[in-house]
Specification:
Strand order of the largest sheet: 2-1-3-4-7-8
Structural class: alpha/beta
Strand content: 5-15%
Order of helices and strands: EHEHEHEHHHHHEEHEHEHH
CATH class of the largest domain: Alpha Beta
Radius of gyration: 18 Å
Shape: globular
CATH superfamily of the largest domain: Alpha/Beta hydrolase fold, catalytic domain
CATH topology of the largest domain: Rossmann fold
Number of helices: 12
Number of strands: 8
Helix content: 40-55%
Largest sheet: 6 strands, parallel
Length: about 260
């Protein structure tokens, strides 16, 4: 039976936006994913995302065998929590630059929530006012192509974002498929309880960090290695490197998996 990779996407980027990465992985593994995390009312977005972890476990439980989890940002965080709660669902785990933090930064996140400042220190403060309407896929593509973060995207990923990251708005135009309100709630619920699970991860795990370190810091990486036994790797790019360099990201994942799978045996 062929091994399965379950891919879990980042906040605001539905899984099909990663089409180029997924096609590269799909040449070697069966693939599965949840299209748009957080939009099922049965699994509402709340602080520290427990229902989103429930949603993830529900999807993983449908497979007939343990899977290789690959998750970017939000997706990696959810797969990490799922692996803590239900390790039997996993063969291995690859986390792509998820904001897993050591105790000091986690405590800062907790305090920011208590003071009502969390939207100021995460991208959540920018989500509710962002543009959400375009006349066509092409106009949405042109709009984001001018944004600095999106200008670094692989051209195919940017095209997939315009096509698969949008939906019919019911009036002949397009709107964001990942709804801004959900995106905002996810950012504001960023978990602060990560350190309490130290020593509880039993699934072989690799963490792939972006070289720019704009989400996780070297101290966070050392904490993950020391207390969760994660293998650490670094690739060039920003936090969105899976969409900036999808082929290279796929190659990194494929190079890591044999060692992780051997560790699982």
């Amino acid at each position: 039976m062929q091994d399965i990779i379950h891919f879990s996407h980042a906040n605001s980027f539905p899984a099909p936006v990663y089409g180029k990465l997924l096609r590269a992985l799909g040449q070697h593994y069966q693939l599965g994913w949840l299209d748009c995390i957080g939009h099922d009312p049965r699994y509402p977005v709340t602080d520290c995302w427990p229902h989103l972890v429930d949603e993830t476990i529900a999807v993983l439980s449908r497979y007939r065998q343990p899977v290789i989890g690959v998750g970017h940002s939000l997706g990696g965080y959810l797969l990490f929590y799922a692996a803590i709660r239900a390790p039997e669902l996993f063969k291995a785990l690859v986390i792509l630059d998820s904001p897993l933090m050591g105790p000091r930064r986690a405590g800062f996140i907790w305090l920011a929530k208590k003071l009502g400042l969390i939207a100021r220190i995460t991208p959540g403060g920018n989500t509710l006012g962002r543009r959400d309407s375009w006349a066509s896929v092409e106009m949405m593509h042109d709009y984001f192509a001018r944004k600095p973060a999106f200008a670094r995207f692989d051209p195919d990923c940017l095209a997939d974002y315009a096509l698969h990251g949008s939906e019919d708005d019911g009036q002949g135009g397009r709107r964001l498929r990942f709804r801004p309100q959900i995106e905002h709630q996810i950012y504001c619920g960023l978990p602060h309880d990560f350190p309490r699970y130290r020593g509880q991860l039993t699934v072989p795990t690799a963490f792939v960090a972006a070289s720019r370190h704009d989400v996780v810091r070297p101290s966070d990486l050392r904490y993950m290695q020391r207390h969760f036994g994660m293998q650490l790797h670094e690739v060039a790019g920003s936090h969105l490197f899976p969409l900036e360099a999808p082929q290279q990201t796929a190659q990194t994942i494929l190079q890591l998996l044999p060692g992780l799978q051997a560790a699982a045996q």
